[in-house]
Structure formats: C-alpha cells, structure tokens
Amino acid sequence: MTDRKELENIYKQNLESDIINYLAEKMHIDLRTAMSKYYSSKLAKQIESGENGIDNLDYKNLVEDLIENELKV
Predict the structure, then answer these.
(1) Which of 1, 52, 53, 61 reaches 20 to 30 Å from 15, CA-CA?
(2) How far is the C-alpha of 66 from the C-alpha of 40, rounded, in Å?
(3) Each residue of 9-68: pLDDT tens digit?
C-alpha cells in the first residue's frame, strides 16, 4: 500500500505538471520556457512547502494568479 507522503508527492507532481502545461498554453510559450518561469516563481516555492494550503487550489486559478502577479511585464 502507498503511504500518505508518497501520495502527496504524486499529487504535487501532477499539480506542477498541470500548471506548467496550462502556463505554456496561456502564454503561448514552449514547455521548457514555462517550466523555467514556473520553477523560478514564488508559487513553486509555496507549493513545495505546502504554504497556506495553496497546493489544494485549482491549477487554472494558480496559473492566472502567477501570470497576473509575477509574470506580467
């Protein structure tokens, strides 16, 4: 049986994958660039640490927030 910590890690990996794919789609950029933008963001750090339960929010909302607050030029 899979333990809780392993399931949480799988959930976070899937969330990050969804965020990166949606970010690439929304910004019309390739996946490598989207990965770079995501992993250098405050959002990535917050999700990794589970800060304020942010990892339980919808990935589309997280991407919209990321674009609006961190990536807007």
Answers:
(1) 1
(2) 11
(3) 899 999 999 999 999 999 999 999 999 999 999 999 999 998 888 888 999 999 999 999
- Give residues with Cβ within 8 angstroms of 66, minimum separation 6: 19, 23, 38, 41, 43
**Cβ pair 24, 15 in contact under 8 A:** no
Q: Please report the pLDDT score of residue 73 as a whole number.
A: 55
Question: Residue 63 burial by CB count (10 A; 0-12/13-18/19+): exposed, middle or buried?
Answer: buried
Continuous H helices in 1-73: 4-27, 31-39, 42-49, 59-66
Q: Give the count of domains, the chain.
A: 1
Distance of alpha carbon 4 from alpha carbon 6, whole angstroms: 5
Angle of the 59-66 helix axis to the 42-49 helix axis, nearest 10: 140
